[in-house]
Specification:
mainly alpha; two-stranded antiparallel ribbon; 21 helices
């Protein structure tokens, strides 16, 4: 049943109109004065507005973080998935396709270190070379990173190279399918990693201490420089165990001869040789007549450097005529023939002795190689003209080059760029030849990769000992270096940044 509101009076519908209007007006005035506005919102006084706003902000922030995390996760996982797809389909391509695919993989940054390092030991030399070039370019780009990021990147690279070459903790030997080119490329990357931190002060701060593995708070963690050094030594040892004492060049294998310790320490800058050695080398070849006195016991006179006449009828082989740098005296090989036989020789026919004398006089003309420096003469050992190459060999021998040095000079002259890089590593560990002068010569190598490897090797040498000569040589090379990357690496070694 409907019950009227207690505050309202029941209006009789049968009442008159005037009475109804007056009653409604009275009720309206009473409503406006006493009743609340039904269209207004009442605030709950039990919870403050500040608390509500705080919770609303927290919910919004959590929602934004959740969406951002989802986006970042999808980007990272999508990147890893795409990289995995590129690597998985690499073996199905041809050589050109693989090279293009490696370029795509390299665009992923540090995430591409492991896939590229695995291709360093690829059976196809072209693929291995492409992976090496891309990794080297990545190393060059890491110089713009901060110290911690650069350390992490180089540590990742060293670990990837160790896994690719099958070396763990320096105990396992290198894989049997590796060639000298594979090993040379891995060593070049490790040398560049060592070079990047060679000029830093190990006492500067904790970050730089980590570079050389000297941080005492992280004694169990080895820095990238120490890792690279250990791995590099292991690669050199394993490579040497395969072909001991041999150096592979583009044309042949060179076996350095063992020499005495005094000869092993000498370079081509330590002449003129002792006067005693020079006199021994310059002693003229003599053929002593039976029963006669050797001319070496006579006092040298003004005629000692001139050819002596030989009686007619005596045949002297042309092999007795020596090079122009060592003039000789040719004496009679045996007693002259009887006069009766000698007189039968026609006067108009030139004898063999006269021809030999003429050729010897012509060969005594000074060689143009005598005015050239040692480096230029060494490069003439690879001259396609056999006569020029032989003259260069003779000139180097006259300047005091030992047999081991001659072998090394010939190897450098005829080797290609990859083999010259290998020769640089052989020089560093050679106990027979002083590597300093040879490093200085190869610093002017026409190949950019060889110069970079020589600079890296010099940096490792300067890190172990002070050598003003090497530093001066690097400064001279820096003054005329045209390649920007090589010049920058030299500045890093000299700490001129």
């Amino acid at each position: 049943m409907f019950s009227p509101h207690p505050n309202h009076e029941f209006v009789d519908p049968n009442a008159s109109g005037d009475q109804s209007v007056s009653t409604n007006a009275t009720e309206s005035s009473r409503w406006d004065a006493d009743a609340p506005n039904l269209f207004s919102l009442a605030r709950d006084s039990s919870q403050s507005a500040l608390t509500k706003r705080m919770w609303r902000g927290i919910k919004t922030m959590l929602a934004v973080l959740l969406v951002t995390s989802a986006l970042l996760g999808s980007v990272y996982l999508g990147k890893q998935w795409l990289l995995h797809q590129l690597v998985a389909g690499l073996d199905e391509l041809d050589t050109t396709g693989k090279q293009n695919r490696l370029i795509q993989i390299a665009s992923f940054g540090t995430a591409a270190i492991e896939p590229l390092a695995e291709r360093l030991v690829d059976e196809q030399d072209e693929i291995s070379e492409s992976a090496f070039v891309l990794l080297q370019k990545m190393q060059n780009d890491w110089i713009t990173l901060g110290p911690d990021d650069a350390i992490a990147a180089h540590e990742r690279l060293v670990t990837a190279i160790a896994n690719a070459y099958g070396i763990h903790d320096g105990e396992q030997p290198l894989a049997s399918n590796l060639t000298s080119r594979h090993i040379a490329r891995g060593r070049e990357l490790l040398n560049q990693t060592i070079l990047e931190f060679a000029s830093l002060d190990p006492n500067q701060n904790a970050t730089t201490n980590r570079l050389s593995g000297l941080n005492q708070t992280e004694s169990t963690k080895v820095g990238p420089v120490e890792q690279a050094t250990r791995l590099l030594d292991r690669m050199r040892f394993s490579d040497a165990s395969r072909s001991p004492a041999f150096v592979t060049t583009a044309s042949r294998r060179v076996l350095p001869e063992r020499v005495s310790r005094s000869d092993g320490r000498s370079g081509w800058t330590d002449w003129p040789p002792p006067q005693q050695d020079r006199s021994v080398r310059s002693t003229p070849a003599q053929i002593v007549r039976s029963g006669g006195k050797p001319d070496s016991l006579d006092e040298p006179g003004p005629q000692s450097d001139r050819l002596q006449p030989v009686p007619s009828g005596v045949t002297v082989p042309l092999s007795e005529i020596v090079s122009p740098s060592r003039p000789t005296k040719v004496l009679a090989a045996r007693q002259p023939l009887p006069t009766q036989i000698a007189d039968r020789t026609p006067a108009s026919t030139p004898s063999a002795v006269q021809m030999a004398t003429h050729l010897a006089g012509a060969s005594l003309a000074p060689s143009p190689l005598t005015v050239l420096d040692d480096e230029t003469v060494i490069r003439h050992l690879a001259n396609p003209d056999a006569l020029v190459a032989e003259q260069a060999k003779t000139e180097l021998e006259s300047r005091g080059f030992t047999p081991a040095q001659m072998e090394m000079a010939h190897a450098i002259a005829v080797a290609g760029p990859p083999d010259r890089i290998r020769l640089v590593d052989s020089l560093v560990h050679s106990s027979q030849i002083d590597s300093g002068p040879w490093m200085s010569m190869m610093l002017d190598d026409p190949d950019r990769g060889v110069r970079l490897h020589v600079v890296s090797t010099m940096a490792a040498m300067l890190a172990n000992r002070q050598d003003p000569g090497l530093e001066q040589r690097l400064r001279r090379r820096l003054a005329r270096e045209q390649d920007a990357h090589v010049a920058k690496r030299i500045r890093n070694v000299l700490d001129l940044r």
